[in-house]
Amino acid sequence: MAKQTPELFKNRSATKEFLFSPSEDLIDAGSEKEICTDRDNAAVAPPNALFPDMLDRKGLADAIDTRMATASMLCALAVRMDRPSRERPDGQEETGLGEDAAMPVARLCRAHDGAWAKTGRNRLVCVLPHLAVTDGGRLARKLMDAVTDNGRPRITIGVATYPTINYTRGQIVDNAEKALEHAGFFGPGTITRFDAVSLNISGDRHYQAGDITAAMDEFQKGLLLDPADVNLQNSLGVCHGVLKDYDNALAAFEKAIWLAPEDVMAIYNKGYVLLLQGNRELALECFRQADDREPNVFEVVFHIGQTLVEMGKNEKARPYLEDAVRINARSGPAFKSLGACLDALGLTREAIQAYKNVVKIYPEDADALSILGQLYTRLGESLDVAAVLCEQSVRLRPDDGVFRHRLGNVYLNQGKLDHALAEFELADSLGHGSRSQIEATQELMMAAKAS
Predict the structure, then answer these.
(1) 242 burial level (CB within 10 Å; 0-12, 13-18, 19+)
(2) Ordered domains of the chain (ranges, CATH)
(3) pLDDT value at position 334?
């Protein structure tokens, strides 16, 4: 959900059918794992004779609350070692923070009456009183220049300041670390200030972890920093939509569209909310607008086709669904919708091929297995295959009356009247309403006995 770039915009993905830009596309592949896993690994700083003033995370928080309680301004620098400072005697790379990286941080803090802590295996945070963001940027650059390897920076720095919107002094450490995560987009050896994009990335982390409330809090704070950030508005709308708060979701998407009328994600997401509310015509209009602005976006094309199928407009739906499976040949739902569309058009063989693709992708899709068996039965071909497919579907969902009914039809076409009757009776007991098939099968059984 982080800030959109032309490259990133082509890597959108769907979550619960909403469209967003995941921050994984923003984080540098070489450092993402370290960025995401490094925090909070140093609750207690190890004793170190060289750095007796190095604190742990709690000690740093206490220092901010006591020693810096009267400071009207604070600046925090979160520092991560990007390259090992040396090799171990066994030839392996050193993975912790080297003294040559920690010493400049210690000197900086001592010179400015600050406090510092080790907050992760390769991470330090120093907090300096009475400094503004411009001062922090200048000191960060000096620190960067002090820790180099043959002229190449060996650290990445995130910078945060207090006051910033409604954050407390104590939250400056977290904000500096969020800026450091944001810096992962730009790569090693960079300095990044805490801003709305930092919160967008942090919010996406919470969203991916399933903490929608925390994600929304980050997106809302990001909008306090930058009310015109379209991605933040879209991300907030997605959260409301996932929570089924459709009115607020629509409001967020409409504001995003107002800010950026050509934004495909917001237009599509507005359409999807309208679809969830049962407004198919308005939803379809939004999907078409999104498609006009940027063709060949899978979610957009797929939902145009699927919505047209739901409206009974199968001829119009077919080309969209065919485009959808061309764009994403691994989408089971798209092949399933295409199969239903082709079946409704009387194109049984083509529908069979679509459902076969569903089963290739999802071998245990009970619906697709059952429908595929039904289609083979309709053609009167490959009845043994049809039986296997329908039998597999009832093994997966034994209490589905529709599946039992279809299996009964296969057995009936195979002449297995006892088996057919048993399945029809089960289907009827499960509420499908197979009474006429039961009676017809019983008549066939009586006729067979009479002959």
Answers:
(1) middle
(2) 27-184 (3.30.70.270)
(3) 97
